Every structure is written in C-alpha cells, then in structure tokens.
Amino acid sequence: DTYPVPDEKLFKVLIVGDPTVGKTSFVQRYVQNTFRKDYKGTVGVDFALKVVRTSENQTVKLQLWDIAGQERFTWMTRVYYKDSHGCIIMFDLGKDNSLENIIKWKNDVDSKCKAPDGSPLPCILLANKCDLPDKQVTREELESFHKQHNFIGWTETSAKEGIMVNESMKFLMEIMLRRE
Ligand code: GDP
Ligand code: MG
User: Fold this and answer.
1) Is ipTM beyond 0.85?
2) Which UniProt keywords apply (predicted)?
3) Among 11, 30, 140, 159, which is most buried by a count of CB atoms within 10 Å?
4) pTM of the model
C-alpha cells in the first residue's frame, strides 16, 4: 500500500516593527509556547520554523523572519523581504506615535516587495502588549487605520499571555493559502 503524499507548502512570513514591540516574543510564543521577560535584542534577523498540519493531506511550513527593528529603511530590508508570502507588522499598544512608525514600515514593505502573484504582500497589523492596562490607541482608530492603510486585518495580541497569537497566524496563513 502507498500513502498519499501530503501536500506541503512553504511560506515565508516577515515580522517587522520597531524595537521592543514584542516581535521575538510573539514568534517564541507561537513556535515554542514560551515567554521570557528579559530583553535580548535581535541583531539582523532571527529565523524560526513552524510546521502546521492544516488537514489530513496538507502541511504548511511557516518560515518566520523576525527582523531587528533597527534595520528599518536600510538597504538590508530589501534583502530580507525577498520572496515573502506574508507579513506581520507589529506595534506596542502602550506607546504613542506607534502608528506613525507603522505607516513607515508598511511603506517600506510595499515599496520593496510583492507577493509571488504580483499583488501587494498580505500584511496583518498586530497591536501587541494588550495585557498592559494603558492603551494609546482605541479600537475604533485601529479599525479605520488598518483599512486606510490596506492591511488584511488587525487584532490586539499579547505574546506574554498568549492572546490571539495562534489565531492571528491562522488568519494570515489562510489568506496566503487562498492566494496560492
Ligand atoms: P522585539 O524587539 O520586537 O523583538 O521585542 P521583544 O520580543 O524582545 O520584547 C521586548 C520586551 O517586551 C521584552 O521585555 C518582552 O518581555 C516584552 N514583551 C513582549 N511582548 C509582550 C506582551 O505581549 N506583553 C508584555 N507585557 N510585555 C511583552
Ligand atoms: Mg527581537
């Protein structure tokens, strides 16, 4: 007897945003389901791989590119962004002026890369650290902001508490699969 060979997809996903917003923590929570309080800055880019069985005959390999925030607008981002399928742009809900920087990240990604089918890279907006009490941006603002700047969606997340981490990745994954 032969087994049906499962269909295997590989997607490259960028995680960008300013330093300390929680990108590395988010990846760690998603891939290992752990959280560490001490801050270890990312230099350049960190890689992580998560294999998701989406159905009996399909697996998706997500290659996560956790890009150091200091890299913004340098020529290096063009190299990192190459051949991506999807993108997470993250900010810290507790900081004001976050949204201005989000626009800069979005423009950087849009100007330097496209999805394999030539359309803009699907980008999800994540408002991280929603476990903290002080929020600088309201849901109403984010609802209109994400539409205005052509994100596929947005949600609050907490890498610390594991809130909406799997769900947001699932949402992005389904969109990447649909565009395949
Ligand atoms: P990066 O520079 O964007 O990769 O940020 P890190 O993942 O290194 O996180 C920066 C700091 O924020 C660390 O001290 C984390 O423990 C903390 N942090 C990350 N995510 C959360 C979160 O969801 N809630 C809270 N309260 N702290 C977080
Ligand atoms: Mg980092």
Assistant:
1) yes
2) GTP-binding, Lipoprotein, Membrane, Nucleotide-binding, Prenylation
3) 159
4) 0.93
